[in-house]
Write a structure and sequence with these properties.
The structure is a homodimer. Chain A contains 16 helices and eleven strands. By secondary structure, chain A is an alpha/beta fold. Bound molecules: nicotinamide-adenine-dinucleotide (NAD) (2 copies) and zinc ion (2 copies). Chains A, B: This is 3-dehydroquinate synthase.
């Protein structure tokens, strides 16, 4: 037998950089942003191939988009379209059909998309998650540009590093961590969102404000009416601040979530369960608002924050037009929620880690929750269901 | 319109660490390595779930392995088996069948494997590539331990950061970069390899030696006879040195291959083509030996290295028992090779980048190849096909 061979230690860091750009009318001929991003032709003169994938819900409201893209790209010397844009269904349907992943992989093959080409996705969070996933696994990663078109995707999902699809009904069961090459938020897309999608994404901004930034929470309180009345100025400001905080969180923490803590999941354990129970008829952001309301009341009942502060949170959600209760939460003496907590732990693995509030603007991680208090919190929300709060 | 919102710049590094361990008879009751690796039970007392996946070719030669694993794991207080080991076909078949990926994802679901559980793969490079891929996409990454059982996987593929499966016959078309939690090389497995698999992996060691380390090349020359006669001492030494160089290369360079250069692909452009042309009846390592021979002769014809040095390379391969030519290379006036060069460029994307030799132990990157010289090199290899070289 050989002399013992000592273990070989491997250790390296992989640097990632990308920028999130803000604009309006990205593909208007006079808008230089996308052209500038792609830059000059390479020394070898090879054009960069672009493959666009578009959310059908976006196309329905922006029917001239493919033509605008074709004309715009024709004016970029360093780029060519690999093919006509690929249309995929918008919303959760994009993530439920494995055939769509195959279709995108086939396109990569068919159009000769390589690791120096770009797959550009235009759509809501669901379409971005699908396309980001396909781009991440094809050739072990093709460059990917995200153009998010909803509030939620512009301020949260689209500016981060995760992608994924559902597997046999299990949400995000498959996916990767894969930073985009770039993100471009075009505020014009927001104008065609329906009421619910306009509102839903605001919940993520309330979330980061509550766990990290009291001043931002106060700004949201001050602009709640404007936001509820679809003021685009207020919305673009909200998105910018929320996206920035989200990105800072990623870079200062554990970008690929190798540990167990996920403070940005404040309010999300109940939200995930509620999305399931309602078969996703409740939007992610709508569920998050309810989940935050629940964990805020819980924080109060656990003696962490004042009743007055909890009421401010509920009040701002109501001003924004959110419902703060759903009957599914209370079914079987909240047995649904009990299971939701277990599933949340299983999904993250390791010890249960839940974020609560220690003050407005200050989250805190805890490792267990009292089920009696959860039930009380549910009761409180159900009793005021659809009755406006007033801050006393 | 709002004031212009400046872009938000994101920038972070993700640190990865893992160790490659060397042992024999990993699951013998008295071997502490695996037990020590898993460590003490967590403070919460939760056992770590282990899901084993075994290469059917390994099982055929090591039929008691599942029992040994069951007994061994029963003796680790901090771990439990999630299920009986899953068997998958060995060799390229593992990577050609999408149903196998689904089967592994299903197992993750069915057995409640979370991001703190471990999927442990035991097998050749193909099985490790399959299981590594499934582990990387399930829950966006479940912890993964690799136990490579071939020379190639112990000294090259198994100690790196890549995984992947084939897609409609396209080799490694889908995959990710995902470092393992740990790698354990058990030399006992090597004893049951057939002649071809014993030999094939040695080509990767010749490769790193030629481009990086003259002393290692001379060591291989000195031990070529011993290696050809299945001397395990020599083989474990070769594997250790090759694995170390491979790992150093990864950590000192561009681990996730975000650029175009891949110096470790010396000899691989022709090798990949040859694997295809022969429908993978030529093993990866066998093809790499031929590819290295070709690019070595090319380096000589291009005036980069001496004829004597090129002969040393061909000679050592012949001592090791490698064939240095395959008729598919010369078909249609080497049109196959011309296409191989283009495909290699397309796969990497961007500018063509090929590694040649500037001396034994010193690779150099070039950005074009002279097709006339390639044909001459092919002619040279074909003329000496199966005729032993002597170093004059
Ligand atoms: N990757 C992450 O980190 C992350 C984080 C949070 C949420 N998500 C995912 O995001 C998804 C939800 O995304 P979402 O809230 O953006 O909704 P969505 O993608 O489900 O889209 C909602 C609807 O809006 C339509 N739509 C999109 N843009 C439009 C526009 N400009 N005008 C009119 N209609 C438009 C879509 O076609 C769809 O019908 C979920 O699948 C969730 O899991 C991902
Ligand atoms: N991920 C990477 O970075 C990387 C690098 C190089 C190659 N690869 C891949 O590795 C694969 C080739 O791997 P390989 O050369 O290890 O061969 P292999 O995995 O194809 O296995 C060859 C044969 O040996 C059998 N086998 C495995 N271990 C055995 C043992 N101990 N005793 C007896 N039989 C055994 C297998 O069942 C199979 O039949 C290719 O798919 C190639 O693409 C991956
Ligand atoms: Zn969310
Ligand atoms: Zn190789």
């Amino acid at each position: 037998m050989n002399a013992v061979q000592p273990p070989l230690q491997q250790s390296f860091s992989v640097p990632f950089t990308y920028a999130v750009h803000f604009t309006r009318h990205l593909f208007a001929p006079e808008n230089p942003l996308f052209r500038d991003y792609l830059g000059q032709p390479s020394p070898t003169g090879q054009a960069k191939k672009l493959l666009f994938v578009i959310d059908s819900g976006v196309l329905a409201h922006h029917p001239t988009l493919p033509d605008a893209i074709a004309q715009y790209v024709a004016g970029i010397p360093s780029a060519i379209l690999a093919a006509d844009p690929i249309l995929v269904p918008g919303g959760e349907a994009a993530k439920n059909d494995p055939a769509l992943v195959d279709r995108l992989i086939d396109a990569v093959d068919q159009y000769g998309i390589d690791r120096h080409s770009y797959i550009v996705a235009i759509g809501g969070g669901a379409v971005l998650d699908l396309v980001g996933y396909a781009a991440a696994i094809a050739h072990r990663g093709v460059r990917h540009i995200r153009i998010p078109t909803t509030v939620l995707s512009q301020n949260d999902s689209g500016v981060g590093v995760k992608n994924g699809v559902n597997y046999r009904g299990k949400k995000n069961f498959i996916g990767t961590f894969a930073p985009p090459a770039a993100v471009i938020n075009d505020a014009h897309f927001l104008t065609t969102l329906d009421e619910r999608d306009w509102r839903a994404g605001i919940a993520e901004a309330v979330k980061v404000a509550l766990i990290k930034d009291l001043a931002f929470f106060e700004w949201i309180e001050a602009h709640a009416e404007a936001l509820a009345h679809r003021d685009t100025e207020a919305m673009t400001e909200l998105i910018y601040r929320c996206a920035r905080m989200h990105m800072q969180h990623i870079s200062s923490g554990d970008p690929f979530e190798l540990g167990s803590a996920r403070p940005l999941d404040f309010g999300h354990w109940a939200a995930h369960k509620l999305e399931y129970l309602t078969n996703f008829s409740v939007r992610h952001g709508e569920a998050v608002a309810i989940g935050i309301a629940l964990d805020t009341v819980y924080s109060q009942l656990a003696g962490r924050i004042l009743a007055h502060d909890a009421d401010r949170v509920l009040h701002v959600f109501q001003q924004l037009g959110f419902d703060l209760f759903h009957p599914a939460l209370a079914e079987n003496e909240s047995e649904n929620l009990r299971r939701g907590l277990t599933e949340f732990q299983e999904h993250l693995g390791g010890q249960l880690t839940i974020t609560l509030l220690d003050a407005l603007g200050q989250g805190i991680e805890v490792h267990d929750m009292d089920f009696g208090l959860i039930q009380q919190a549910v009761g409180r929300l159900s009793s005021v269901y659809s009755v406006p709060f007033s801050v006393g």
